[in-house]
């Protein structure tokens, strides 16, 4: 039987992040991905590398600070994949948030960034409103600007896998995980490549299957309990390019949620929604209601723009089960272990694209008690990330 030290299930941002961190720590690691790198949520995000301004409203200060620091680091590590972006927040006579609330939020955001390199937020003077072509000015009371960063999530995921491979990590794709046996001193993973069933022995397994990895019932021996998490659909629409160079963070007039409107290649990207999803993640499609909701918001704020929907796609957030609105639920990543004293099977639940590197480092630290002691060969905080070649041939 084949052998390795660590098996990672899923080639989204978390899986590739763990592969990179484990290889950097000196371990033999193999990643199994069933479709393609970033085929899941990691190609369906809003593509922001950000602290998450809105999480300040729900008091998630630790998360915001951590992600802002990571944003600054990733801007240095991946300059051709991540760029700073200016965001505008327009406030109208009927907006639910007052200028003082936004001012205080942005002040805290600047402070938590802790970097002098990031441009600080400001309130635009009325004469500067001309810089915002197409924005509805009827009822406009104030406009604030702040800085965050934008990436290409698929390209970032591929770049991290490329870095992992340069450190010796192996990629099996397409390879579909089917089941695992967890013993006291090792594990066995079964997976399928086409019609061929394969099996590999390892010391530990990391479940980074995102929405596909919440329910592990019947997939492991001994069985793991279902995780108390659920999937929340987030849709984006793409409309024709409209001359936007900066991004907007606006309030949905119907339910007051925050929605982004931003330039994306030769298009305008508008998202997102948050609707509980109970179906099979493989069959996720953006609902017509979500598409209409986003198109209406775009038309409301940019009445002169062409709001034809050229494309629409959806991804799944993994959030803790709760009766509260998804918008206000905690966004911290949870790392769940089969046994804290002998962690052979770890699951990554939830999380952000932005925080992938820290999550991966946490996972590798937690696994060190079941892995042999090794000298690190690299530090992921110092590894430059570059766009991967189009030809990405699995090992
Ligand atoms: C709408 C939306 C917008 C978001 N916007 C942002 C944002 O702007 N910034 C930010 O920081 N975060 C954002 N996030 C969060 C972020 O995108 C996710 O946390 C992150 O992409 C999740 O990555 P993952 O690796 O856990 O899961 P995924 O990317 O879903 O990866 C899981 C992988 O597992 C594979 N897989 C499934 N089953 C198997 C199997 N049996 N065997 C092998 N492989 C399997 C899948 O094919 C998939 O590639 C957003 C999330 C959503 C839903």
Describe the structure.
The chain is α/β, with parallel strands linked by helices. The chain has helices at 13-24, 61-77, 99-113, 153-166, 288-301, 356-367, and strands at 2-3, 6-9, 29-32, 48-49, 82-92, 122-123, 140-151, 170-172, 176-182, 187-193, 196-202, 204-207, 220-221, 229-240, 247-251, 258-264, 267-271, 275-277, 311-320, 334-337, 345-349. The protein has two domains: 2-42 and 154-228 and 331-382, FAD/NAD(P)-binding domain; 85-149 and 229-321, D-Amino Acid Oxidase, Chain A, domain 2 (2-Layer Sandwich), CATH 3.30.9.10. The protein is 21% helix and 30% strand. The strands form three sheets. Strands 4, 5, 6, 7, 14, 15, 16, 17, 18 and 19 form a ten-stranded mixed sheet that branches. The protein has a six-stranded mixed sheet with strand order 8-3-2-12-21-20, covered by helices on one side. Strand 10 (187-193) and strand 11 (196-202) form a beta hairpin. The longest helix has 17 residues, at 61-77. The chain is globular, with a radius of gyration of 22 Å. Flavin-adenine dinucleotide is lined by residues 9-15, 32-35, 39-42, 44-48, 176-177, 208-212, 234, 272, 315-317, 348, 351-354.
Rounded mean pLDDT is: 95
Which hetero compounds are present in the coordinates? flavin-adenine dinucleotide
The geometry reads as: globular
Query: What number of domains?
Result: 2
Main beta sheet strand tally, sense and closure: 10 strands, mixed
CATH architecture of the largest domain: 3-Layer(bba) Sandwich
Helical fraction: 10-25%
CATH homologous superfamily descriptor of the largest domain: FAD/NAD(P)-binding domain
Sketch the topology as an H/E string, one letter per element. EEHEEHEHEEHEEEEEEEEEEEHEEEH
What is the number of strand segments? 21
Beta-strand proportion: 25-35%
Low-confidence stretches: none
Q: What is the CATH topology classification name of the largest domain? A: FAD/NAD(P)-binding domain
**Rg, nearest Å:** 22 Å
Number of separate helices? 6
The top-level CATH class of the largest domain is Alpha Beta
